[in-house]
Each structure stands twice: as structure tokens, then as C-alpha cells.
Amino acid sequence: QVQLVESGGGLVQAGGSLRLSCAASGLTFSAYYMGWFRQAPGEEREFVASIAWSGGSTSYADSVKGRFTISRDNAKNTVYLQLNSLKPEDTAVYYCAARFYLRREYDAWGQGTQVTVSS
Q1: What beta strand segments (E) does 1-119 contain?
Q2: Each residue of 10-32: pLDDT tens digit?
Q3: How confident is the model at residue 56 (pLDDT cuts 50, 70, 90)?
């Protein structure tokens, strides 16, 4: 059974930084693409960033390019999201997700971690 557990969220002032972590278990971590998504109140969940199984390929939403960085440590079964230069509009619940490299859809999700950016 795949489990994804996020941590690292919190309250931060605009311009500040946070580092989110997602610990994965119950899967062959290195065979999965990993992604971060977020959902603000009243909004649909949106893609934030993803990283390929090898860590060599990353993708970002335009709204976070240059400010957020996704990385992974396959030895620790963990994916990270470094959030810099945070803005109030980054306030959301951030979710970690896993996608087996042969599949098109993310099929495992974490419970989410709240990020709140005050102005």
C-alpha cells in the first residue's frame, strides 16, 4: 500500500521560504514520477511541479518558476519542494503525488500540508 506523508508546511511572511518534504513508502520510489500540487480555498487543485524518476527532468507551473525547486532523494524515498520568495497567492494546501513511470495519471496522493503566506 502506497503512502505519501507531507511535512514542512506552516505560516510564513511574504518573501519568506519553506521546504516541504514528502516521505514515500510501499512503492519502488525510483520507478515513480513525483509531483507537487496545491489547492487554495474555493479553487481547483493545480499542478505545481514534477520530477522524473531519475531526478534529471523537472517541470514547473509558470506561476512558481524561478521561485520553487523540486528535488528528490531516491535513497531516502523522499521528494522535496523548496519554496522561496513566497507570495500570499501561494497560500494553499500542498499535496504530494506519485505516478508510476508507465502510467499517465498520478495514482497516489498524500494528505496535504498547509502553507499560509501572510502579507
Answers
A1: 3-7, 10-13, 18-25, 32-39, 46-51, 58-60, 68-73, 78-83, 92-100, 108-109, 113-118
A2: 999 999 999 999 999 999 999 99
A3: confident
